[in-house]
Amino acid sequence: xxxxxxxxxxxxxxxxxxxxxxxxxxxxxxxxxxxxxxxxxxxxxxxxxxxxxxxxxxxxxxxxxxxxxxxxxxxxxxxxxxxxxxxxxxxxxxxxxxxxxxxxxxxxxxxxxxxxxxxxxxxxxxxxxxxxxxxxxxxxxxxxxxxxxxxxxxxxxxxxxxxxxxxxxxxxxxxxxxxxxxxxxxxxxxxxxxxxxxxxxxxxxxxxxxxxxxxxxxxxxxxxxxxxxxxxxxxxxxxxxxxxxxxxxxxxxxxxxxxxxxxxxxxxxxxxxxxxxxxxxxxxxxxxxxxxxxxxxxxxxxxxxxxxxxxxxxxxxxxxxxxxxxxxxxxxxxxxxxxxxxxxxxxxxxxxxxxxxxxxxxxxxxxxxxxxxxxxxxxxxxxxxxxxxxxxxxxxxxxxxxxxxxxxxxxxxxxxxxxxxxxxxxxxxxxxxxxxxxxxxxxxxxxxxxxxxxxxxxxxxxxxxxxxxxxx
Length: 472
Hints:
The protein is built from 21 helices and two strands. The chain is an all-alpha fold. It has a two-stranded parallel ribbon. It is globular and about 70 Å long.
């Protein structure tokens, strides 16, 4: 039996003991104790991170995963919970007060084959006990690292043979084309006829999501350009001006937590997408309409933890993006009232909000989850906890391949562009299947039916998670 299969069986046994009211075994209690002492993850508090595991599995080639895994903080977790995250100014100009955690930045750390940053940083104390008790047999660890290293070499060969056009140019052109068709959308809204007006709504909606989802996602991973300096500029442009959110918080939540600890309880378990007080139909079909309103409000709430100059930069960028949209509707599209322009903004900005919410929950929730001290190696973690959806022309254009049909590939190699994820998809899928590792795929409608049928189990009762649990 494979090590990851034994781990899942152990996860399920412990979960069933908890459900029946039985006290967990001593080993299970020891593993869950650090998490029970921890507080739930939220956008404003940085959680302690699990220990660095293993050695570098990509020593024979370049590190494909650079910039997409959290570094190990050395501060006391208790102090981190009290002080929150320090998000001070543009990443290249951050000045961190003495004794405070530097928090998220747009700088890109170097990671090893297990998805951890190299450098031998000190392990947070909250995880030391679990790490000592869960010493992985050297043979299994070497085997798993060898798998990731072998796959990385295969992918690296494809990347080296690819031109700049394939690595970045195609996706850059898709984003540029979206900006080029924007004038047509605003001009169509001037028409009194229903068909051109609806066409204008469609154009603006598709462009908005292409820029705010595809553009922001690639920018957060520095996949739009090979220059780190330009990568920071594009991150601020797409995340703050176009998406009305904070660049630092987006990087921290998505890159450091979600990618660094995919489906790891309290760190990257996608629990931020859960709203247990909403019933299934309201959450799945009505609540997404409010995303354009909630996004800037959440961003404003996060600004209280940052330095004044960073908050002012974010406020200026958010105002510039929102007001530019409103100004174009009034002066180019000819809207006569403030409310008609605001309603049009809401419609266009929420046009694809439903699939946006659905995709984010379909591809992780309902798959195996792990505690921080019992998570498998990177290749098993990503193959178990990530799912691909089929290709869809509209969603591929608006969200990108790395979010839709190449999500497994994206989590294994997060700094690759959408086009490169599509190019390495046959290699990754064949390799995982050859090694008898999971390669999760399902249709959009199948996942929708699953979530409507098991909404209470997946979105209400589990999580919030405080114990080790594996959901099959």
